Amino acid sequence: MKLITAIIRENKLDQVREALIEAEITRITVSRISGHGQQIKEEIYRGNIVVPNLIPKVRIDIAVNENFVDITVNTIIKAARSNSKGEVGDGKIFITPLEECIRIRTGERGRTAI
Questions:
Q1: What does the alpha-carbon distance between residue 18 and residue 20 come to, in Å, rounded to a whole number?
Q2: pTM over 0.70
Q3: DSSP code of residue 41
C-alpha cells in the first residue's frame, strides 16, 4: 500500500479530479494549503510590487494498493501539467509507504480497507 500526496495549482483541481474518476480512482482527500517552492508570484498592492511568502495550493491524498500507483501518478501528471512541457509551480507528487489502513466502520484492515 502507498500514500500518494500531490501538491497542485488550485485551478487544476477539477481537471485532476475528473481525470482520476475516469481512471477509476474515486477515493481522494483534498485540502486547501499554502506554500512555495521555486514559484515566485509577484502581486501589486497599493502600487508596490509585493512577493507573498505563501502561494495558495491544493493537496490531494490518495491511498492506493501497489497496482494503482503508476496509474494514479500518471493521471495526476497529465491533468496537473500546465502545458506539454510543464511550468514552474505545477506541483509535486510524493509517494510514501502506507503501513496500515483501517476502515473505522467495519474494522477491516490492509488492502481491503482501501
A1: 5
A2: yes
A3: -
How do residues 14-46 score in pLDDT, each as one tens digit? 999 999 999 999 999 999 998 877 776 667 777
The domain in which residue 62 lies consists of 2-113
Distance CA 86, CA 97 (A): 27
Identify the CATH number of the domain in which residue 75 sits: 3.30.70.120
For residue 60, the tally of other CB atoms under 10 A from its CB is 22
Long-range contact set of residues 12-21: C-beta below 8 Å, sequence gap at least 24:
12/58, 12/79, 12/80, 12/90, 12/91, 13/58, 13/60, 15/79, 15/80, 16/60, 16/75, 16/76, 16/79, 16/80, 18/79, 19/75, 19/76, 19/78, 19/79, 20/62, 20/72, 20/75, 20/76, 20/79
- State how far Cα 50 lies from the chain centre: 27
How many domains, in total, are found in the chain?
Answer: 1
What are the start-end ranges of the H helices in the chain?
Answer: 13-22, 69-80
